[in-house]
Amino acid sequence: xxxxxxxxxxxxxxxxxxxxxxxxxxxxxxxxxxxxxxxxxxxxxxxxxxxxxxxxxxxxxxxxxxxxxxxxxxxxxxxxxxxxxxxxxxxxxxxxxxxxxxxxxxxxxxxxxxxxxxxxxxxxxxxxxxxxxxxxxxxxxxxxxxxxxxxxxxxxxxxxxxxxxxxxxxxxxxxxxxxxxxxxxxxxxxxxxxxxxxxxxxxxxxxxxxxxxxxxxxxxxxxxxxxxxxxxxxxx
Length: 236
What we know:
Elements: E1 2-5, H1 9-20, H2 27-33, E2 43-46, E3 57-59, E4 62-66, E5 75-81, H3 88-91, H4 97-102, E6 103-107, H5 119-129, E7 132-138, E8 142-143, H6 156-169, E9 173-177, H7 179-186, E10 195-199, H8 207-213, H9 220-232
Parallel strand pairs: 3-6, 5-7, 5-9, 9-10
Antiparallel strand pairs: 1-4, 2-6, 3-8, 4-7
Helix pairs in contact: 1-6, 5-9
């Protein structure tokens, strides 16, 4: 059985409280999202919008385990992605304008707690079957259209949060997905005895970079297999 947990919840709540300059609790959001794959929904966090932005996203990191995995647990792979992108067109049919402009839409990286499909679902499924726990997190926990790019977003608060996550999770491997993840990880000084795997961002926007490292077309399946082969060549 595959389950999800929120081991860094208190760390993220503290970060968000500093960001918004008020106490932030994510307990009600967790209740809505749940702890089973495919059993939860996105949630609204009251008053947590980025001012003057039409939509705001917040992702809560998750730890994924498969209790039915045939192999003994090798440790944890930390997948570091970019940010909790929210497409306005996808949520305008769910929430009204006032809800979107006054609240943040809270979820998990790649909405993994809902009904994940495609690249990340298959990647994580293979990793857990191989005997790994998988921790999914974003470089930036907050996103809005005006916060695109990392030029003015990487502060000591983000740096300290990522260090605390690593200290809590103690990953064996960190998978850096894309330029933003790599730039952020390169700036922290809190890691040791961790194997780093760097790959381009899995989206089609990075297909040119993928073409340079693959001996095949940059399909989702080929990208996934490339990552899995690199992981499988690392001794736990």
